[in-house]
Amino acid sequence: MINKIAHIFSWVLSPVLIPAYAVFIALWVTTLSMLPAALRWNVVVMVWLITCVLPVLAIYILYKLKVISHPGLNNRKERYIPYVMTTACYIGASWYLHGIHAPHWMWMFMIGGAVAAALSCVVNVWWKISAHGAAMGGLLALLSRIAFYGIAVVDMWPVISLAIILTGILGTSRILLHCHTLMQVVAGVANGFLWVFILT
Question: Where does the sequence pass through the membrane (predicted)?
Answer without folding.
Answer: 12-35, 41-60, 80-98, 104-127, 147-169, 175-199
